[in-house]
Amino acid sequence: MSADLVDLVIVGAGPAGLSAAVEARSLGLQVLLLDEQRSAGGQIYRGVDVASARQLSVLGRDYAAGAALTDAFKHCGASHVAGAAVWNVSRDRTVNYLQQGRNLSVRARHIILATGAMERPFPIAGWTLPGVMGAGAAQILYKNASALPSEPVVLAGCGPLLYLLACQYLAAGVTLKAVVQTTQTRDYLRAARYAAGALKGCGDLLKGLRMTVQLRRHGVRVFSAAQALSIDGTERAEGLQFTQRGRVHRIASSLILLHQGVVPNTQLSLSLNARHSWSDMQLCWLPDTDADGQIDDIGIYIAGDSRGIVGAKASALQGRRTAIAVARRLFPGKADYLAALDARLRGELRGMLHIRPFLDALYRPALEHRVPPQDSVIVCRCEEVSAGQLRRFTELGCQGPNQTKAFGRCGMGPCQGRLCGLTVTEVIAHARAVPPGAVGYYRVRPPIKPITLGELSGP
User: Does the pLDDT value for residue 2 go beyond 50?
Assistant: First the structure.
């Protein structure tokens, strides 16, 4: 246990957390960064410091660029506690975490939560079978252990990561059976409303175009406007079935990677009982913050994708701006200098976010892939609660996710609702014919990570 009061504790060593730490140190703050991984980088830059030349080549320039940020962090003078699983953050700015079986804590004048994003659930028939996993998880396996599929793979869903992983796999020599993308004509029409903003981010558009051309050049079968996705198999995945323009297709495969975007990891902000609002644009819960990212004026801030999906580069800028906001509180005498610095970063960040509404509209996951129409589809994987059971709970008077715990233990498994929470909200909202915001979310309580009684009671 530590009684020391640190100027700033940062939770998360991704782009937002690392950038916040570097900026805060440059402004004279004492910084302690806690992260569950063994090395800095978060999910996006995971393992970049120890990546081989082969990995750097396969994963591309955007990944390799993360090494500059992790190197800056190493030399900035911030304290880094690796392997720290934060299980509680209190409103009095006490942070409790586990490290090597010890239960430790630290108090801070200010806290920045930079816990990033996680893959959105993709609850379709067969998604719990062995041989089915998220595209993001597959990418992390390569970053962590250079693990690649030894058999032909099918990628299905929507979002930039789907195409990025496909191109990375091609560079690594993996055979792609097909890329099945679910973006429909209506999605392009909806995104067209934000075309002006997208053109300001034309660099990202060109990257996407180049990836599409690369897939075509390698002869990868690309199916567009796919609907009604399901996975065949009894003991494990055997194939992906879908419809395209009224025609049924089936692609045999024992390895299917699904992806339909990422959503903020809000477990810590929810456990603080901070207000969250449903975003119809990003189809998820976002914490309510002030312009600096602070929740409830309690000295706890949120930066990066855990505040709303903005991408790696924008997350880094947001982390820097949040560090400056903390410095303004601690060093009021530097207000003018800090305001000028923040104004410059604010302009850069605004430029990076021009394309975000376009991407959110274009890669909006289909309702059928968020709210399973088949009653048999499992929603809560931990407790094996199906979509049909959730609908029956609603018929019996269940009003929201918290009540599903009493009706059928939904959300009470090891993942504590991380994998099913958004789906449960939308299934109930759809069944009640009300907006998701009227249904709410699980009441998240600490510990948000598993902790034994021995660890809890230990020194």
Answer: no
